[in-house]
Amino acid sequence: MNRVMKLLLVSDVLFVSGFGLIQPILSIFIKDNLLGGQIYAAGFASMLFLLTKSCIQLPFSRYVDQHDHVVRWLIVGSFCVAIVPFLYAYATRVEYIYVAQVLYGIGAGLAYPTWLGLWMMHLDKHHESYEWSLYSTVMGLSTAATAGIGAALVQTIGFKPTFFVVGFLSLIGCFILFLLKIKEPKKLRVRVINVK
User: Fold this and answer.
1) 26 near 42, Cβ under 8 Å?
2) Among 20, 34, 62, 157, which residue's beta carbon has the most beta carbons within 10 A?
3) 121-161, pLDDT tens digit by residue?
4) In the chain, what are the domain boundaries?
């Protein structure tokens, strides 16, 4: 596994682990802690995220396929996702969660196709199945570990500090992406004339 893939994997582990801490308890937070929060609101918030992400990622993937310098879009999308937990922490009304979920969808819609494209470009030949399986296994283990930890964290320190933990993990994951080498534009070929 090459350096680019390792960085992508570590970054994604931090994002998935972070959000894994709060996914199982987000609906409880919405229902019990927000003005206007109810079970329907939690479902509607999830729908907003998935709808926004789905509307953005397909057309954006066309852009990614046709352009260089896509790492910046991965960073922009990841940063949008990373600030979502901070928005959760300060939410007092369910409408704030809706705004956060739309931002989450925009960020994921920019980051996901870019991440997939970079991962696919750097797969090692004849190791594709192993590297995809390694990714899937690491993500599964990370999510499994954090699901229980998230509930314990909320019960111990509360929702707001837990959202901050998730936000900081996500920001670290975002900053790791800055270590990816951004592809330089092709340099113009200069014709050298030898004068004797």
Assistant:
1) yes
2) 20
3) 888 888 899 999 999 999 999 888 887 888 889 889 999 99
4) 3-178
Count CA within 13 A, CB hemisphere, residue 37: 18
Give the span between the Cα atoms of 160 and 88, in whole angstroms. 8
Hey, what are 192's tokens? 């050298």
CB 119 within 8 A of CB 8: yes
Taking the model in full, what pTM does it have?
0.86
CATH homologous superfamily for the domain 3-178: MFS general substrate transporter like domains (1.20.1250.20)
* Cβ density class 32-68: b for 16+ within 10 Å, e for less: eebeebeeebbeebeebbeebbeebbeebbeebeeee
53 close to 77: Cβ distance less than 8 angstroms: no
Digit-coded pLDDT (tens) for 25-80 = 888 898 888 887 788 888 999 999 999 999 999 999 998 888 777 888 999 999 99
